[in-house]
Structure formats: structure tokens, C-alpha cells
């Protein structure tokens, strides 16, 4: 057994002992996270596995204040142990089950934006440190360039920058400083549950060095899709109002386009994943494919209604988890734009422009996703049971609105 696994097992055993006598105090997330990073969930030593399952069982019974440390620990253990309990899922593997509940505790669009930016900063920092240890110069340059390109989309204080701006080139040290400032909330430190969400949310299945990168990119994009779906929900409410406010509607559409644009930038890093490592990751994460993504399903179904219900994602995500809306936003939006044409053509043009921006970013995301999939898996079936890149190519041109 490795030192990290031994330390983690001891820490969880002592927490369990304390929990039998009274309130056990903070859960030892850090040593467990280190052991998971060293082994991968699928290869944890049996003793640690059992202790984690006992801890999961214990936290299920405990009362918890939503948003507090016990609440976050219970949801965290639920995700972490899901594959140990033979209940693997995309939500648990990506920890979006925990992220989603945390974001819904308050102003969801703001929380999703902040958390996704923090995870992006953590990813950039992780990748730059890894690149610094890389001995092959070409590989080091490749990884450093991809990470600093993503760092350009981040602001040290505000999270994501405006995707319309052209941020200047960044040196590695500047990128690291920017991410450090963001992750320490300008030196003040993140609140405890948020720090836990950032620092302990990589339940990797394997010890492949590229898995943290893959998992983080999925988490960030999932949050951005949820954020875009929130803005689309608001745009939908506006479009169905008795007297829709065109400027507010266009602003929600621009915010949607911005979220998808940020997600597109994250692909710079996905392209650096080694195909052989990815094959090992896929084999260890059966049952957790992105067809189960509720964020992307919600986004598509709110926009396109029943036209977004392809059999594959519908089987993976039922209508309860991501219902379709009637009329969908695209129909409601067409009606508002047509009505505006008769008395305010400038406002109608602005609305069309904002709609086009959403579609343009969506198609760009899909094109890049297909390109990355071709490069990394080639012509093999997808984990969700589709014919892989051919499935993606068939649905490439569908607009969101
Ligand atoms: C190594 C990189 C990636 C590869 C090789 C890849 C490959 C694929 C494939 C083959 C599919 C078809 C469905 C199936 O699994 O059978 C798919 C679907 C999907 N992927 Fe990826 N993907 C990658 C990264 C990502 C990332 C980072 C995200 C962000 C969350 C993502 C989100 C999705 C979504 C939402 C779908 C469902 C799309 C739909 O139904 O139209 N993928 N991916």
C-alpha cells in the first residue's frame, strides 16, 4: 500500500471512530483526495475502499444544513463512492451532482460562472506545473501554449473575460499569477465549501496523468452549459411575456453565447490528451459517458423543444431530468422578432444578431468537439453506444435556436 493510501485510511478510520462518539469534526478530504489521485478510484486498496463506504453510510444519516461543510461532505462521498457501489454515472464521475446542488443554493448563473472559472484556473495551474516537469521540449511547448491560451480567457478578479475582447498573450509566470489570485479570491481565501468543491473534486478512475485534465474540462464545460441553460431559461420567460423587453432578451442571448464561447476555449486543452491514455480512461469509466449530460440536454431542449429529442440522449436523460418546453425558445423568439419587424426594425435586427451569435458559438463548439473526437478516438464507437464520430458528424449542423 502507498503512503498516501495508508494516511488516508488512517484519517478516515479516526474520523469514523470520532463519529461514533459525537460530532466528528471536519472530514479528512485532503488525504483522501491525494490517495485517489495516486491510485484512481478503480484501484484503491480494499481497506480504504471499505472505510470510504462506511463514511458514506455514516453521512447519509447525519442532519445537514444545505451549503454547509457536512452537506458538502455527504454529497462529495456520494459521488466519490458511486463506482465502488456499482452505481457509476456521469453526474457522480464529474461531481456535477454536487456542483449543481451548490449552484442552485443561490444566484445560479453567477455561481456556475464563478465555479467554472475557478475550476479553469485550477486546471491551467495544474497543466502549467505538469508542463514544467515535462522533459520533451515539443510536448512541453504544446501543453504550455494550450494552458496559457485558456488563461487568457480568465480575469484574476472577475472570472471569465468578455469573449468579444482579444486578450493579449500571457507568459507562464503571468498565467500562474492570474490563476493564483483567482483561486485565493484576491488573497482572502475561498469560503470552505467552495474551496472543497475546487480542491477535492477530481474523483479520477485511473492514475493516468491526463485524467485530471479530461475530468476538469468536462466539469468546466458542464457548468458552462448549465449557465447557458439558465440564461436561455430567462430569455424564454422574457420571450413569452405579454410585452417582451427586446434589450433584456438580447442580453440573455449574448450571455448564452458567451458561456458557449468559453466552453469552446477549453477544448484547447482537451486536444493535448494522449489517445492511449484516453483509451485507458474510457475503459475505466464505463457508464459515465457525456450523452448523460443534463446541462447540454437542458440547453438543447429549452431551445429546440421536441426537435432536440434524439433517441440516444433521450434514452440517457429522461424528460424528468431535462424536460422540453412548449413552445420552445426558438419558436417564441421567432414570434417576438416578427412582431418587432413591424414597429422597431433596429431592435429586431439586434435580436437577430444575438440569436445568430448563439448559433455561431454552438456550431463552433460542435465542430471543435468533432475534431477533438476524431483526433483522440478515431473511428471507434462512442462510450454512449453511438457510432462515435459519425454520430457527432450527423448532428453537426443542427442550430441551437
Ligand atoms: C477526449 C475528448 C472527447 C471525446 C473523444 C468525445 C467523444 C464523444 C463521442 C464519440 C460522443 C458521441 C456519443 C457517445 O459517447 O456515444 C460524444 C458526445 C458528447 N460529448 Fe464528447 N468527447 C470528448 C470530450 C467532451 C467534453 C470535454 C465534453 C464536455 C462536457 C463533451 C460533451 C459531449 C456531449 C454533451 C455529448 C452528447 C452530444 C449529443 O448528443 O449531440 N465531450 N463525445
Q: What do these coordinates show?
A:
GO terms for molecular function: heme binding; metal ion binding. This is Tryptophan 2,3-dioxygenase. One of its GO terms (biological process) is L-tryptophan catabolic process to kynurenine. By secondary structure, the chain is mostly helical. The protein folds into two domains: 3-87; 109-394, Methane Monooxygenase Hydroxylase, Chain G, domain 1 (Up-down Bundle). Helices cover 67% and strands 1% of the residues. It has 18 helices and two strands. Strands 1-2 form a two-stranded antiparallel ribbon. Strand 1 and strand 2 (159-160) form a beta hairpin. Helix 7 packs antiparallel against helix 11, helix 11 (211-240) packs across helix 16 (329-343) and helix 16 packs antiparallel against helix 17 (345-377). The longest helix is centred in the last third of the chain and has 33 residues, at 345-377. It is globular. The site of protoporphyrin IX containing FE has 29 residues, from helix 11, helix 17 and helix 18.
Topology:
Blueprint: H1 3-21, H2 29-39, H3 46-61, H4 69-80, H5 90-93, H6 96-103, H7 108-133, H8 137-151, E1 154-155, E2 159-160, H9 172-183, H10 192-199, H11 211-240, H12 246-270, H13 275-284, H14 294-304, H15 311-316, H16 329-343, H17 345-377, H18 389-394
Antiparallel strand pairs: 1-2
Helix pairs in contact: 1-2, 1-3, 3-4, 6-7, 7-8, 7-9, 7-10, 7-11, 8-9, 8-12, 11-12, 11-14, 11-16, 12-17, 16-17
Bound molecules: protoporphyrin IX containing FE.
Protoporphyrin IX containing FE binds at residues 214, 217-218, 221-222, 270, 273, 278, 289-291, 293, 296, 313, 369, 372-373, 376-377, 382-386, 388-389, 391-392, 395.
